[in-house]
Write a structure and sequence with these properties.
The chain has 599 residues and is α/β, with parallel strands linked by helices. The chain has helices at 17-30, 72-78, 108-119, 140-157, 172-175, 201-214, 250-259, 288-295, 305-313, 318-328, 333-341, 347-353, 361-367, 409-416, 455-468, 492-498, 527-533, 535-543, 557-573, 577-589; strands spanning 7-12, 36-40, 54-60, 92-99, 123-124, 129-132, 181-186, 228-229, 240-244, 267-272, 286-287, 374-377, 397-399, 405-407, 428-433, 445-448, 476-482, 512-517, 547-553, 593-598.
Protein backbone atom coordinates (compact mmCIF):
# COMPACT_ATOMS: atom_id res chain seq x y z
CA UNK A 1 0.00 0.00 0.00
CA UNK A 2 1.06 3.59 -0.67
CA UNK A 3 2.69 5.27 2.30
CA UNK A 4 0.71 8.44 1.54
CA UNK A 5 -2.61 6.65 1.34
CA UNK A 6 -5.65 7.84 3.20
CA UNK A 7 -8.68 5.87 4.27
CA UNK A 8 -11.73 6.58 2.09
CA UNK A 9 -15.04 5.48 3.56
CA UNK A 10 -17.99 5.42 1.15
CA UNK A 11 -21.47 4.82 2.55
CA UNK A 12 -24.90 4.20 1.06
CA UNK A 13 -27.69 4.71 3.54
CA UNK A 14 -31.48 4.77 3.33
CA UNK A 15 -32.43 5.38 6.96
CA UNK A 16 -29.17 6.82 8.32
CA UNK A 17 -27.74 3.69 9.97
CA UNK A 18 -25.05 3.10 7.33
CA UNK A 19 -24.03 6.77 7.51
CA UNK A 20 -23.80 6.51 11.29
CA UNK A 21 -21.67 3.35 11.07
CA UNK A 22 -19.40 4.94 8.44
CA UNK A 23 -18.88 8.07 10.51
CA UNK A 24 -18.12 5.98 13.57
CA UNK A 25 -15.50 3.97 11.68
CA UNK A 26 -14.04 7.26 10.44
CA UNK A 27 -13.83 8.68 13.95
CA UNK A 28 -12.08 5.55 15.29
CA UNK A 29 -9.50 5.74 12.48
CA UNK A 30 -8.95 9.48 13.02
CA UNK A 31 -8.42 8.90 16.74
CA UNK A 32 -5.48 6.70 15.77
CA UNK A 33 -3.98 9.39 13.57
CA UNK A 34 -5.19 8.05 10.22
CA UNK A 35 -6.29 10.56 7.55
CA UNK A 36 -9.92 9.83 6.67
CA UNK A 37 -12.59 10.99 4.24
CA UNK A 38 -16.22 9.88 4.77
CA UNK A 39 -18.43 10.43 1.70
CA UNK A 40 -21.85 9.28 0.49
CA UNK A 41 -21.68 7.21 -2.70
CA UNK A 42 -23.92 9.67 -4.52
CA UNK A 43 -21.37 12.42 -3.87
CA UNK A 44 -18.39 10.41 -5.16
CA UNK A 45 -17.42 9.95 -8.80
CA UNK A 46 -17.32 6.19 -9.33
CA UNK A 47 -14.94 6.58 -12.28
CA UNK A 48 -12.24 7.82 -9.88
CA UNK A 49 -12.51 4.78 -7.64
CA UNK A 50 -9.52 3.20 -9.36
CA UNK A 51 -7.34 6.11 -8.14
CA UNK A 52 -7.96 5.25 -4.48
CA UNK A 53 -5.70 2.95 -2.47
CA UNK A 54 -7.87 2.02 0.52
CA UNK A 55 -11.65 2.12 0.40
CA UNK A 56 -14.24 0.90 2.89
CA UNK A 57 -17.84 0.52 1.77
CA UNK A 58 -20.60 0.68 4.37
CA UNK A 59 -23.86 -0.16 2.64
CA UNK A 60 -27.39 -1.05 3.68
CA UNK A 61 -29.89 -3.32 1.96
CA UNK A 62 -33.44 -2.04 1.54
CA UNK A 63 -36.74 -3.68 0.68
CA UNK A 64 -36.29 -7.03 -1.03
CA UNK A 65 -32.56 -6.87 -1.65
CA UNK A 66 -32.57 -3.39 -3.20
CA UNK A 67 -29.70 -0.87 -2.97
CA UNK A 68 -30.29 2.48 -1.26
CA UNK A 69 -31.17 5.32 -3.63
CA UNK A 70 -27.76 6.91 -3.06
CA UNK A 71 -25.98 3.80 -4.41
CA UNK A 72 -27.89 3.29 -7.65
CA UNK A 73 -25.85 5.53 -9.97
CA UNK A 74 -22.56 4.32 -8.44
CA UNK A 75 -23.65 0.70 -8.82
CA UNK A 76 -24.59 1.16 -12.48
CA UNK A 77 -21.06 2.43 -13.12
CA UNK A 78 -19.55 -0.68 -11.52
CA UNK A 79 -21.75 -2.91 -13.68
CA UNK A 80 -20.62 -1.44 -17.00
CA UNK A 81 -19.57 -4.24 -19.30
CA UNK A 82 -16.61 -2.37 -20.74
CA UNK A 83 -14.77 -2.37 -17.40
CA UNK A 84 -11.71 -4.61 -17.54
CA UNK A 85 -11.11 -7.37 -15.02
CA UNK A 86 -8.12 -5.40 -13.70
CA UNK A 87 -9.89 -2.03 -13.59
CA UNK A 88 -9.54 -1.84 -9.79
CA UNK A 89 -6.16 -3.52 -9.55
CA UNK A 90 -4.18 -1.90 -6.74
CA UNK A 91 -7.30 -0.87 -4.84
CA UNK A 92 -7.62 -2.41 -1.37
CA UNK A 93 -11.14 -2.56 -0.03
CA UNK A 94 -13.42 -3.75 2.75
CA UNK A 95 -17.21 -4.04 2.89
CA UNK A 96 -19.52 -3.81 5.87
CA UNK A 97 -23.21 -4.41 5.24
CA UNK A 98 -26.28 -3.51 7.26
CA UNK A 99 -29.32 -5.72 6.88
CA UNK A 100 -32.01 -7.75 8.58
CA UNK A 101 -31.92 -11.54 8.56
CA UNK A 102 -35.71 -11.49 8.74
CA UNK A 103 -35.65 -10.55 5.05
CA UNK A 104 -35.23 -13.13 2.31
CA UNK A 105 -32.30 -11.32 0.70
CA UNK A 106 -30.31 -10.58 3.83
CA UNK A 107 -27.48 -8.10 3.22
CA UNK A 108 -27.84 -8.76 -0.50
CA UNK A 109 -26.30 -5.43 -1.53
CA UNK A 110 -23.13 -5.87 0.54
CA UNK A 111 -22.64 -9.39 -0.84
CA UNK A 112 -23.13 -8.27 -4.46
CA UNK A 113 -20.81 -5.30 -4.00
CA UNK A 114 -18.09 -7.44 -2.43
CA UNK A 115 -18.27 -9.88 -5.33
CA UNK A 116 -18.23 -7.17 -7.99
CA UNK A 117 -15.23 -5.36 -6.49
CA UNK A 118 -13.31 -8.62 -6.45
CA UNK A 119 -14.24 -9.36 -10.09
CA UNK A 120 -12.89 -5.94 -11.08
CA UNK A 121 -9.50 -6.72 -9.54
CA UNK A 122 -9.69 -5.05 -6.14
CA UNK A 123 -8.13 -6.83 -3.15
CA UNK A 124 -10.12 -7.45 0.03
CA UNK A 125 -8.35 -6.30 3.20
CA UNK A 126 -10.63 -8.34 5.42
CA UNK A 127 -13.65 -10.59 5.04
CA UNK A 128 -16.83 -8.57 4.69
CA UNK A 129 -18.80 -7.83 7.84
CA UNK A 130 -22.57 -8.23 8.02
CA UNK A 131 -24.59 -6.34 10.58
CA UNK A 132 -27.99 -7.78 11.51
CA UNK A 133 -30.92 -5.85 12.95
CA UNK A 134 -32.08 -9.10 14.54
CA UNK A 135 -28.97 -9.22 16.77
CA UNK A 136 -29.65 -8.25 20.42
CA UNK A 137 -27.43 -5.19 19.88
CA UNK A 138 -28.55 -4.47 16.34
CA UNK A 139 -25.97 -4.02 13.60
CA UNK A 140 -23.40 -2.84 16.17
CA UNK A 141 -23.17 -6.40 17.45
CA UNK A 142 -21.19 -7.21 14.31
CA UNK A 143 -19.69 -3.77 13.68
CA UNK A 144 -17.63 -3.58 16.88
CA UNK A 145 -15.58 -6.78 16.40
CA UNK A 146 -15.34 -6.27 12.62
CA UNK A 147 -14.05 -2.72 13.08
CA UNK A 148 -11.43 -3.85 15.57
CA UNK A 149 -10.19 -6.57 13.20
CA UNK A 150 -10.21 -4.16 10.27
CA UNK A 151 -8.11 -1.53 12.04
CA UNK A 152 -5.59 -4.13 13.21
CA UNK A 153 -5.31 -5.68 9.74
CA UNK A 154 -4.96 -2.25 8.14
CA UNK A 155 -2.09 -1.46 10.52
CA UNK A 156 -0.35 -4.71 9.61
CA UNK A 157 -0.56 -3.84 5.92
CA UNK A 158 0.47 -0.19 6.32
CA UNK A 159 1.83 0.78 9.76
CA UNK A 160 2.33 4.40 8.70
CA UNK A 161 -1.44 4.92 8.66
CA UNK A 162 -1.38 4.66 12.47
CA UNK A 163 1.84 6.42 13.58
CA UNK A 164 1.62 5.18 17.18
CA UNK A 165 -0.06 1.85 16.50
CA UNK A 166 -3.67 0.69 16.31
CA UNK A 167 -4.10 0.67 20.08
CA UNK A 168 -3.06 4.28 20.65
CA UNK A 169 -6.09 6.54 20.75
CA UNK A 170 -6.02 10.33 20.95
CA UNK A 171 -7.65 11.34 24.26
CA UNK A 172 -11.33 12.08 23.86
CA UNK A 173 -11.21 15.70 24.97
CA UNK A 174 -8.30 16.41 22.62
CA UNK A 175 -10.10 14.75 19.75
CA UNK A 176 -13.38 16.47 20.47
CA UNK A 177 -13.63 19.03 17.71
CA UNK A 178 -16.10 21.70 16.89
CA UNK A 179 -19.42 20.57 15.36
CA UNK A 180 -19.54 20.30 11.58
CA UNK A 181 -22.11 23.02 11.22
CA UNK A 182 -22.35 26.65 12.24
CA UNK A 183 -25.43 28.63 13.24
CA UNK A 184 -25.69 32.33 12.50
CA UNK A 185 -28.12 34.39 14.57
CA UNK A 186 -29.73 37.39 12.93
CA UNK A 187 -31.16 40.57 14.38
CA UNK A 188 -34.93 40.11 14.32
CA UNK A 189 -35.42 43.81 13.56
CA UNK A 190 -33.38 43.47 10.39
CA UNK A 191 -34.87 40.23 9.13
CA UNK A 192 -36.77 40.79 5.91
CA UNK A 193 -39.37 38.24 4.88
CA UNK A 194 -40.90 38.11 1.43
CA UNK A 195 -44.17 36.96 2.94
CA UNK A 196 -45.84 38.47 5.94
CA UNK A 197 -48.82 36.14 6.15
CA UNK A 198 -47.79 32.92 7.89
CA UNK A 199 -50.90 31.18 6.58
CA UNK A 200 -49.89 31.79 2.96
CA UNK A 201 -49.17 28.45 1.30
CA UNK A 202 -46.25 29.84 -0.67
CA UNK A 203 -44.68 31.07 2.56
CA UNK A 204 -45.14 27.67 4.21
CA UNK A 205 -43.72 25.98 1.12
CA UNK A 206 -40.61 28.17 1.17
CA UNK A 207 -40.17 27.68 4.92
CA UNK A 208 -40.09 23.92 4.41
CA UNK A 209 -37.64 24.24 1.52
CA UNK A 210 -35.36 26.59 3.44
CA UNK A 211 -35.34 24.53 6.63
CA UNK A 212 -34.68 21.22 4.87
CA UNK A 213 -32.03 22.81 2.65
CA UNK A 214 -30.17 24.13 5.69
CA UNK A 215 -30.40 20.87 7.63
CA UNK A 216 -26.97 19.14 7.51
CA UNK A 217 -28.18 15.54 7.39
CA UNK A 218 -29.30 13.53 4.38
CA UNK A 219 -33.06 13.67 4.07
CA UNK A 220 -35.21 11.12 2.25
CA UNK A 221 -34.87 12.71 -1.18
CA UNK A 222 -33.25 15.64 -2.96
CA UNK A 223 -36.49 17.60 -3.42
CA UNK A 224 -36.77 19.95 -0.44
CA UNK A 225 -39.86 21.82 -1.63
CA UNK A 226 -43.10 19.77 -1.47
CA UNK A 227 -44.69 18.69 -4.75
CA UNK A 228 -47.98 19.86 -3.31
CA UNK A 229 -50.07 20.34 -0.23
CA UNK A 230 -52.95 17.93 -0.01
CA UNK A 231 -55.51 20.61 -0.73
CA UNK A 232 -54.19 21.46 -4.14
CA UNK A 233 -54.42 19.86 -7.59
CA UNK A 234 -52.49 16.60 -7.71
CA UNK A 235 -51.42 14.12 -10.35
CA UNK A 236 -50.18 10.55 -9.99
CA UNK A 237 -50.49 7.02 -11.40
CA UNK A 238 -51.63 3.81 -9.75
CA UNK A 239 -48.69 2.17 -8.03
CA UNK A 240 -47.16 5.52 -7.06
CA UNK A 241 -46.06 6.36 -3.54
CA UNK A 242 -46.91 9.46 -1.51
CA UNK A 243 -44.43 10.78 1.04
CA UNK A 244 -45.81 12.95 3.83
CA UNK A 245 -43.91 15.25 6.16
CA UNK A 246 -45.60 14.71 9.52
CA UNK A 247 -46.35 17.46 11.98
CA UNK A 248 -44.76 17.26 15.42
CA UNK A 249 -46.54 17.80 18.71
CA UNK A 250 -46.23 21.53 19.54
CA UNK A 251 -45.94 20.68 23.24
CA UNK A 252 -42.95 18.41 22.52
CA UNK A 253 -41.26 21.13 20.46
CA UNK A 254 -41.79 23.63 23.28
CA UNK A 255 -40.46 21.15 25.86
CA UNK A 256 -37.33 20.49 23.76
CA UNK A 257 -36.64 24.21 23.31
CA UNK A 258 -37.14 24.86 27.02
CA UNK A 259 -34.99 21.87 28.06
CA UNK A 260 -32.13 23.06 25.84
CA UNK A 261 -32.44 26.71 26.93
CA UNK A 262 -33.03 27.92 23.38
CA UNK A 263 -34.71 31.07 22.16
CA UNK A 264 -37.65 29.92 20.07
CA UNK A 265 -38.06 33.34 18.42
CA UNK A 266 -34.40 33.77 17.39
CA UNK A 267 -33.84 34.07 13.63
CA UNK A 268 -31.14 31.70 12.40
CA UNK A 269 -29.43 30.25 9.34
CA UNK A 270 -27.50 26.99 9.39
CA UNK A 271 -24.55 26.09 7.16
CA UNK A 272 -21.48 23.81 7.11
CA UNK A 273 -18.66 25.20 9.22
CA UNK A 274 -15.82 26.78 7.32
CA UNK A 275 -17.70 27.32 4.07
CA UNK A 276 -19.09 30.39 2.42
CA UNK A 277 -22.81 29.88 2.22
CA UNK A 278 -25.58 31.96 0.76
CA UNK A 279 -27.88 30.66 3.46
CA UNK A 280 -26.24 33.13 5.87
CA UNK A 281 -28.35 35.83 4.25
CA UNK A 282 -30.82 37.19 6.79
CA UNK A 283 -33.44 37.36 4.06
CA UNK A 284 -33.76 33.60 4.12
CA UNK A 285 -33.35 33.10 7.86
CA UNK A 286 -36.13 31.57 9.93
CA UNK A 287 -37.22 31.27 13.50
CA UNK A 288 -35.38 28.64 15.51
CA UNK A 289 -38.66 27.03 16.51
CA UNK A 290 -39.70 26.63 12.87
CA UNK A 291 -36.34 25.06 12.00
CA UNK A 292 -36.65 22.52 14.84
CA UNK A 293 -40.26 21.75 13.96
CA UNK A 294 -39.52 21.07 10.27
CA UNK A 295 -36.18 19.25 10.46
CA UNK A 296 -35.37 17.72 13.87
CA UNK A 297 -37.21 14.64 15.14
CA UNK A 298 -37.12 15.41 18.85
CA UNK A 299 -40.02 13.30 20.15
CA UNK A 300 -40.22 10.22 17.94
CA UNK A 301 -36.83 8.92 16.75
CA UNK A 302 -34.16 7.50 19.06
CA UNK A 303 -30.73 9.16 19.11
CA UNK A 304 -27.68 7.27 17.89
CA UNK A 305 -24.72 6.06 19.93
CA UNK A 306 -22.55 9.08 19.13
CA UNK A 307 -25.21 11.33 20.66
CA UNK A 308 -24.49 9.76 24.06
CA UNK A 309 -20.74 10.17 23.61
CA UNK A 310 -21.06 13.88 22.82
CA UNK A 311 -23.53 14.31 25.70
CA UNK A 312 -20.89 12.98 28.09
CA UNK A 313 -18.62 15.95 27.27
CA UNK A 314 -21.32 18.41 28.31
CA UNK A 315 -22.54 16.65 31.48
CA UNK A 316 -21.71 18.59 34.65
CA UNK A 317 -22.92 15.88 37.05
CA UNK A 318 -20.23 13.23 37.46
CA UNK A 319 -22.65 10.30 37.78
CA UNK A 320 -24.35 11.32 34.53
CA UNK A 321 -21.00 11.71 32.75
CA UNK A 322 -19.93 8.23 33.87
CA UNK A 323 -23.18 6.63 32.72
CA UNK A 324 -23.03 8.35 29.34
CA UNK A 325 -19.41 7.31 28.86
CA UNK A 326 -20.38 3.74 29.71
CA UNK A 327 -23.24 3.80 27.18
CA UNK A 328 -20.84 5.05 24.50
CA UNK A 329 -18.24 2.35 25.23
CA UNK A 330 -18.07 -1.14 23.70
CA UNK A 331 -18.75 -2.60 27.16
CA UNK A 332 -21.99 -0.63 27.47
CA UNK A 333 -23.25 -1.39 23.97
CA UNK A 334 -25.84 -3.97 25.01
CA UNK A 335 -27.15 -1.89 27.91
CA UNK A 336 -27.45 1.13 25.62
CA UNK A 337 -29.40 -0.95 23.13
CA UNK A 338 -31.84 -1.99 25.86
CA UNK A 339 -32.15 1.56 27.23
CA UNK A 340 -32.36 3.37 23.90
CA UNK A 341 -33.40 1.33 20.85
CA UNK A 342 -35.53 -1.31 22.59
CA UNK A 343 -37.44 1.32 24.51
CA UNK A 344 -37.46 3.69 21.52
CA UNK A 345 -36.49 6.54 23.80
CA UNK A 346 -36.74 9.89 22.09
CA UNK A 347 -34.17 12.68 22.04
CA UNK A 348 -36.32 14.70 24.42
CA UNK A 349 -36.64 11.77 26.86
CA UNK A 350 -32.89 11.13 26.83
CA UNK A 351 -32.11 14.78 27.49
CA UNK A 352 -34.62 14.79 30.36
CA UNK A 353 -32.93 11.68 31.82
CA UNK A 354 -29.62 13.58 31.97
CA UNK A 355 -30.60 17.06 33.24
CA UNK A 356 -27.04 18.29 33.79
CA UNK A 357 -26.23 18.05 30.09
CA UNK A 358 -26.27 21.37 28.27
CA UNK A 359 -25.39 20.74 24.61
CA UNK A 360 -24.78 23.67 22.26
CA UNK A 361 -27.46 24.00 19.62
CA UNK A 362 -24.87 23.34 16.88
CA UNK A 363 -24.29 19.84 18.26
CA UNK A 364 -28.02 19.23 18.61
CA UNK A 365 -28.62 20.18 14.97
CA UNK A 366 -25.81 17.84 13.90
CA UNK A 367 -26.84 14.85 16.01
CA UNK A 368 -30.62 14.90 16.46
CA UNK A 369 -32.17 12.48 13.90
CA UNK A 370 -33.76 14.27 10.95
CA UNK A 371 -37.52 14.54 10.68
CA UNK A 372 -38.17 12.14 7.82
CA UNK A 373 -41.05 11.90 5.45
CA UNK A 374 -43.19 8.77 5.68
CA UNK A 375 -44.05 6.86 2.50
CA UNK A 376 -47.46 5.35 1.78
CA UNK A 377 -48.70 3.39 -1.21
CA UNK A 378 -51.49 5.31 -2.91
CA UNK A 379 -54.85 3.51 -2.64
CA UNK A 380 -56.75 5.23 -5.42
CA UNK A 381 -56.82 5.85 -9.16
CA UNK A 382 -56.40 9.45 -10.20
CA UNK A 383 -58.57 8.71 -13.23
CA UNK A 384 -61.43 7.74 -10.92
CA UNK A 385 -60.79 10.35 -8.21
CA UNK A 386 -59.43 13.52 -9.86
CA UNK A 387 -57.71 15.88 -7.40
CA UNK A 388 -57.90 13.30 -4.61
CA UNK A 389 -55.37 10.90 -3.16
CA UNK A 390 -56.48 8.02 -0.93
CA UNK A 391 -54.18 6.34 1.59
CA UNK A 392 -54.57 3.18 3.67
CA UNK A 393 -52.81 3.78 6.98
CA UNK A 394 -52.45 1.56 9.99
CA UNK A 395 -52.22 3.66 13.16
CA UNK A 396 -49.02 2.25 14.62
CA UNK A 397 -48.92 1.66 18.37
CA UNK A 398 -47.03 -0.71 20.62
CA UNK A 399 -45.80 -1.25 24.17
CA UNK A 400 -42.06 -1.39 24.94
CA UNK A 401 -40.45 -4.04 27.21
CA UNK A 402 -40.82 -1.60 30.12
CA UNK A 403 -44.49 -0.97 29.33
CA UNK A 404 -44.09 2.41 27.69
CA UNK A 405 -46.84 3.25 25.23
CA UNK A 406 -45.55 4.27 21.80
CA UNK A 407 -47.26 5.45 18.63
CA UNK A 408 -46.06 6.09 15.10
CA UNK A 409 -45.44 9.79 14.57
CA UNK A 410 -47.04 10.19 11.15
CA UNK A 411 -49.92 7.72 11.46
CA UNK A 412 -50.97 9.08 14.86
CA UNK A 413 -50.73 12.66 13.60
CA UNK A 414 -52.87 11.94 10.55
CA UNK A 415 -55.39 10.00 12.63
CA UNK A 416 -55.65 12.94 15.02
CA UNK A 417 -56.63 15.43 12.30
CA UNK A 418 -60.29 16.37 12.36
CA UNK A 419 -61.74 16.30 8.83
CA UNK A 420 -64.49 18.68 9.95
CA UNK A 421 -62.11 21.19 11.47
CA UNK A 422 -58.83 21.00 9.54
CA UNK A 423 -59.04 24.12 7.42
CA UNK A 424 -55.77 25.36 8.87
CA UNK A 425 -53.87 22.10 8.32
CA UNK A 426 -51.71 21.79 5.21
CA UNK A 427 -50.00 18.45 4.64
CA UNK A 428 -46.68 18.72 2.74
CA UNK A 429 -46.41 15.84 0.27
CA UNK A 430 -44.10 14.44 -2.39
CA UNK A 431 -45.01 11.94 -5.12
CA UNK A 432 -42.63 9.38 -6.54
CA UNK A 433 -42.70 6.07 -8.35
CA UNK A 434 -43.06 3.00 -6.19
CA UNK A 435 -41.97 -0.58 -6.85
CA UNK A 436 -45.26 -1.45 -8.55
CA UNK A 437 -45.53 -0.03 -12.10
CA UNK A 438 -49.05 0.60 -13.46
CA UNK A 439 -50.05 -2.41 -15.60
CA UNK A 440 -51.59 -2.07 -19.07
CA UNK A 441 -55.25 -3.20 -19.29
CA UNK A 442 -54.30 -6.22 -21.43
CA UNK A 443 -51.98 -7.70 -18.77
CA UNK A 444 -53.46 -10.45 -16.52
CA UNK A 445 -52.65 -9.84 -12.87
CA UNK A 446 -52.11 -11.98 -9.79
CA UNK A 447 -52.17 -9.68 -6.76
CA UNK A 448 -51.19 -10.65 -3.21
CA UNK A 449 -51.81 -7.95 -0.61
CA UNK A 450 -52.52 -8.95 2.99
CA UNK A 451 -53.34 -6.20 5.51
CA UNK A 452 -52.48 -2.70 4.34
CA UNK A 453 -50.68 -4.39 1.43
CA UNK A 454 -54.04 -4.14 -0.33
CA UNK A 455 -53.57 -0.36 -0.60
CA UNK A 456 -52.03 -0.10 -4.09
CA UNK A 457 -54.33 -2.79 -5.46
CA UNK A 458 -57.43 -0.79 -4.64
CA UNK A 459 -56.14 1.74 -7.15
CA UNK A 460 -55.36 -1.05 -9.64
CA UNK A 461 -58.91 -2.39 -9.43
CA UNK A 462 -60.45 1.09 -9.71
CA UNK A 463 -58.40 1.85 -12.80
CA UNK A 464 -59.09 -1.46 -14.51
CA UNK A 465 -62.81 -1.10 -13.83
CA UNK A 466 -62.73 2.26 -15.57
CA UNK A 467 -60.71 0.79 -18.46
CA UNK A 468 -63.20 -2.08 -18.85
CA UNK A 469 -65.90 0.44 -19.75
CA UNK A 470 -63.89 1.45 -22.83
CA UNK A 471 -62.71 -1.95 -24.06
CA UNK A 472 -61.61 -5.47 -23.13
CA UNK A 473 -59.39 -5.96 -20.07
CA UNK A 474 -57.44 -8.94 -18.72
CA UNK A 475 -58.55 -10.78 -15.55
CA UNK A 476 -57.30 -10.15 -12.01
CA UNK A 477 -56.78 -12.71 -9.25
CA UNK A 478 -56.50 -11.02 -5.86
CA UNK A 479 -55.50 -12.75 -2.61
CA UNK A 480 -56.17 -10.66 0.50
CA UNK A 481 -55.53 -11.53 4.12
CA UNK A 482 -56.38 -10.16 7.56
CA UNK A 483 -56.88 -11.44 11.09
CA UNK A 484 -60.65 -11.42 11.44
CA UNK A 485 -63.58 -11.06 9.09
CA UNK A 486 -65.41 -8.72 11.44
CA UNK A 487 -62.51 -6.58 12.67
CA UNK A 488 -60.01 -5.71 9.94
CA UNK A 489 -61.47 -6.73 6.58
CA UNK A 490 -60.25 -3.57 4.84
CA UNK A 491 -62.44 -2.26 1.99
CA UNK A 492 -64.73 -5.29 2.37
CA UNK A 493 -67.64 -3.83 0.39
CA UNK A 494 -65.32 -2.56 -2.34
CA UNK A 495 -63.69 -5.94 -2.99
CA UNK A 496 -66.94 -7.87 -2.82
CA UNK A 497 -68.71 -5.52 -5.20
CA UNK A 498 -65.97 -5.94 -7.81
CA UNK A 499 -65.91 -9.73 -7.38
CA UNK A 500 -69.61 -10.10 -8.23
CA UNK A 501 -71.91 -9.37 -11.17
CA UNK A 502 -69.20 -9.42 -13.80
CA UNK A 503 -66.78 -7.15 -11.92
CA UNK A 504 -63.08 -7.16 -12.75
CA UNK A 505 -62.42 -9.53 -9.82
CA UNK A 506 -65.23 -11.95 -10.69
CA UNK A 507 -64.57 -15.59 -11.52
CA UNK A 508 -66.81 -15.44 -14.60
CA UNK A 509 -64.32 -12.98 -16.09
CA UNK A 510 -61.40 -15.29 -15.37
CA UNK A 511 -60.41 -13.58 -12.14
CA UNK A 512 -61.24 -14.09 -8.49
CA UNK A 513 -61.08 -12.63 -4.99
CA UNK A 514 -59.97 -14.87 -2.11
CA UNK A 515 -59.54 -13.92 1.55
CA UNK A 516 -57.50 -15.58 4.29
CA UNK A 517 -58.79 -14.82 7.80
CA UNK A 518 -55.83 -15.94 9.86
CA UNK A 519 -57.49 -15.90 13.31
CA UNK A 520 -61.09 -16.96 12.58
CA UNK A 521 -60.36 -20.67 13.06
CA UNK A 522 -58.05 -22.81 15.26
CA UNK A 523 -55.45 -23.20 12.50
CA UNK A 524 -53.97 -20.02 11.09
CA UNK A 525 -54.73 -19.43 7.42
CA UNK A 526 -52.62 -17.06 5.35
CA UNK A 527 -52.66 -15.84 1.75
CA UNK A 528 -50.24 -18.58 0.65
CA UNK A 529 -52.77 -21.20 1.79
CA UNK A 530 -55.49 -19.60 -0.31
CA UNK A 531 -53.10 -19.50 -3.25
CA UNK A 532 -52.55 -23.25 -3.01
CA UNK A 533 -56.32 -23.80 -2.83
CA UNK A 534 -56.62 -21.94 -6.14
CA UNK A 535 -53.54 -23.57 -7.62
CA UNK A 536 -55.18 -24.32 -10.98
CA UNK A 537 -56.46 -20.77 -11.44
CA UNK A 538 -53.05 -19.34 -10.55
CA UNK A 539 -51.31 -21.67 -13.00
CA UNK A 540 -53.74 -20.93 -15.83
CA UNK A 541 -53.25 -17.20 -15.42
CA UNK A 542 -49.47 -17.60 -15.33
CA UNK A 543 -49.71 -19.53 -18.59
CA UNK A 544 -51.59 -16.56 -20.04
CA UNK A 545 -48.61 -14.32 -19.22
CA UNK A 546 -49.82 -12.85 -15.94
CA UNK A 547 -47.66 -10.50 -13.90
CA UNK A 548 -47.35 -11.00 -10.14
CA UNK A 549 -47.59 -8.09 -7.70
CA UNK A 550 -46.90 -8.61 -3.97
CA UNK A 551 -47.34 -5.91 -1.33
CA UNK A 552 -47.37 -5.90 2.47
CA UNK A 553 -45.23 -6.88 5.44
CA UNK A 554 -41.55 -7.42 4.74
CA UNK A 555 -41.01 -10.17 7.32
CA UNK A 556 -41.97 -13.70 6.21
CA UNK A 557 -44.81 -12.94 3.83
CA UNK A 558 -42.88 -12.23 0.58
CA UNK A 559 -40.75 -15.37 1.00
CA UNK A 560 -43.78 -17.54 1.89
CA UNK A 561 -45.67 -16.23 -1.14
CA UNK A 562 -42.74 -16.95 -3.46
CA UNK A 563 -42.48 -20.48 -2.06
CA UNK A 564 -46.20 -20.98 -2.73
CA UNK A 565 -45.73 -19.89 -6.35
CA UNK A 566 -42.80 -22.27 -6.78
CA UNK A 567 -44.87 -25.14 -5.34
CA UNK A 568 -47.84 -24.33 -7.58
CA UNK A 569 -45.66 -24.18 -10.70
CA UNK A 570 -43.97 -27.47 -9.83
CA UNK A 571 -47.21 -29.32 -9.03
CA UNK A 572 -49.27 -27.97 -11.92
CA UNK A 573 -46.62 -28.33 -14.63
CA UNK A 574 -44.87 -31.44 -13.36
CA UNK A 575 -41.43 -29.82 -13.40
CA UNK A 576 -38.86 -30.12 -10.63
CA UNK A 577 -38.61 -27.68 -7.75
CA UNK A 578 -35.40 -26.31 -9.24
CA UNK A 579 -37.13 -25.65 -12.56
CA UNK A 580 -39.99 -23.90 -10.73
CA UNK A 581 -37.47 -21.62 -9.03
CA UNK A 582 -36.00 -20.89 -12.45
CA UNK A 583 -39.46 -20.00 -13.75
CA UNK A 584 -39.87 -17.39 -11.01
CA UNK A 585 -36.39 -16.00 -11.74
CA UNK A 586 -37.38 -15.58 -15.38
CA UNK A 587 -40.52 -13.71 -14.33
CA UNK A 588 -38.36 -11.36 -12.26
CA UNK A 589 -35.99 -10.75 -15.16
CA UNK A 590 -38.91 -10.13 -17.51
CA UNK A 591 -40.37 -7.50 -15.16
CA UNK A 592 -43.37 -9.62 -14.22
CA UNK A 593 -42.72 -10.22 -10.52
CA UNK A 594 -42.87 -7.12 -8.33
CA UNK A 595 -42.62 -6.78 -4.57
CA UNK A 596 -43.29 -3.71 -2.44
CA UNK A 597 -42.76 -4.57 1.20
CA UNK A 598 -42.31 -2.58 4.38
CA UNK A 599 -41.45 -3.30 7.99
Amino acid sequence: MDDKAKLLILYASQTGNAMDAAERLGREAERRGCPVAVISTDEFDASSLRDEKIVVFVVSTTGQGDPPDSLKVFWRKLLQRNLAKDWLEGVNYAVFGLGDSGYQKYNFVAKKLDKRLSILGATAIIERGLGDDQHPSGYEGALDPWMSSFLNTLYEKNPKLFPKGPDFVIPDMDFMDRPKIEIVHHDADKVVSRYSNDADLRFIEMQIERARSMFPGKLSHDKKRPDCFLKMIIEYEVGDVLEILPGQDPAAIDAFIQRCNLNADAYITVHPRGTENQLCDSKISMKLRTFVELTMDVASASPRRYFFEVMSYFASAEHEKERLQYFASPEGRDDLYQYNQKERRTVLEVLEDFPSVQMPFEWLVQLVPPLKTRAFSISSSHSVHPNQVHLTINVVSWTTPFKRKRTGLCSAWLAGLDPENSSGVNIPAWFHKGSLPPPPPSLPLILIGPGTGCAPFRGFVEERTLQSKCGPTAPILFFFGCRNKDDDFLYKDFWLSHSQNGGVLSEDRGGGFYVAFSRDQPNKVYVQHKMREQSNRVWNLLCEGAAIYVAGSSTKMPADVMSAFEEIISNESGVSSEAAVGWIRELEKAGKYYVEAWS
